[in-house]
């Protein structure tokens, strides 16, 4: 009886022998790369062990180096290429940095859930990963108070606030008080997740890196000071009636600016490294540097 067996053809989705060999090779490459990445992370952990001894860090305020983190992010953006989304790499590094900072000195994160609680929680998880405990707060002021009382925790406050929040930034600064340390998102790029504009608040830091921008609470005395602040390379971040929060380039002569712009009751509330805008996204040019075609920041 003649055989009724048909030549074997691959099922839909099933690889033939050559494809199966290629797949096995690709998986071997993936396994090798995974083992290398894991090995590098273990080695990074050992390096942090030595860094802890040298830095002598025991409180988080002394461990955070937002200026160095900004620099690491700039280099990450500059060297990135290929189909892997930039924000995936950013998030992986945020998780790494948080984990290694917490190895130096543990901290939790409080976030302001006043207006967009779910988005703020997403942003907190994007920035700090899943090893950190989150404390949901009803508004910006409670978030700042949480940081002050804990003495160790970081906070996340939405940049856009309901009118009921008032001039919340007036609670920042003061000797040894909480202050603004970073901008989120740091990398502005179309389609990214966790893009709700927010500020990272920290206890007093020991970061020696000079920031790009300094932030002040000011009271306007007369006409809108925004044009004069803009001409000085600064920007208004928030305002409620006559109370403003402004960002100006580090080293701005504040006495001269306040005289020209009509500002009073000036208090430093923090500092920032400028973020990076990639591609065709609308950004505040004071807060974000643009990446040009050649991948250089301008
Ligand atoms: O460079 C440092 O001082 C570190 O503590 C290391 C590290 C990192 O994990 O890369 C962690 C926290 C700082 O904010 C910056 C960088």
From TrEMBL:
What SMART domains does this protein map onto? CM_2 (SM00830)
Q: Which InterPro entries match?
A: Chorismate_II_sf (IPR036263), CM_dom_sf (IPR036979), CM_II_prokaryot (IPR002701)
Which residue numbers delimit the Chorismate mutase domain?
Answer: 17-108
Q: What class of enzyme is it?
A: isomerase
What does the record give as EC number?
Answer: 5.4.99.5
**Pfam families, A to Z:** CM_2
Q: What is this protein called?
A: chorismate mutase
Q: Which organism is it from?
A: Kaistia dalseonensis
Q: What is the lineage of its organism?
A: Bacteria, Pseudomonadati, Pseudomonadota, Alphaproteobacteria, Hyphomicrobiales
């Amino acid at each position: 009886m003649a055989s009724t067996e048909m030549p074997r053809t691959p099922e839909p989705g099933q690889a033939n022998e050559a494809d199966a060999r290629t797949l096995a090779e690709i998986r071997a490459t993936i396994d090798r790369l995974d083992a290398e990445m894991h090995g590098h992370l273990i080695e990074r952990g050992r390096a942090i062990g030595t860094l802890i001894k040298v830095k002598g860090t025991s409180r988080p305020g002394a461990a955070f180096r937002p200026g160095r983190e900004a620099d690491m992010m700039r280099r990450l953006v500059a060297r990135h290429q290929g189909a892997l989304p930039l924000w995936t790499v950013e998030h992986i590094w945020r998780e790494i940095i948080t984990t290694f900072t917490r190895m130096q000195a543990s901290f939790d994160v409080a976030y302001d859930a006043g207006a967009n609680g779910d988005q703020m929680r997403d942003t907190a998880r994007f920035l700090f990963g899943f090893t950190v405990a989150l404390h949901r707060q009803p508004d910006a002021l409670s978030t700042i108070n949480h940081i002050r009382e804990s003495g160790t925790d970081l906070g996340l406050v939405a940049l856009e606030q309901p009118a009921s929040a008032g001039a919340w930034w007036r609670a920042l600064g003061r000797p040894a008080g909480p202050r603004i340390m970073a901008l989120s998102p740091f990398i502005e790029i179309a389609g990214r997740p966790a893009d709700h504009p927010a500020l990272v608040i920290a206890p007093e830091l020991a970061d020696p890196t000079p920031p790009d921008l300094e932030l002040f609470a000011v009271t306007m005395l007369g006409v809108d000071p925004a044009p004069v602040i803009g001409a000085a390379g600064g920007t208004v971040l928030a305002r409620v009636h006559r109370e403003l929060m402004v960002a100006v380039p580090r080293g701005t002569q504040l006495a001269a600016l306040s005289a020209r712009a009509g500002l009073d009751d000036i208090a430093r509330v923090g500092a920032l490294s400028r973020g990076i805008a990639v591609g065709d996204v609308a950004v505040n040019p004071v807060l974000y540097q643009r990446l040009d075609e050649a991948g250089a920041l301008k």
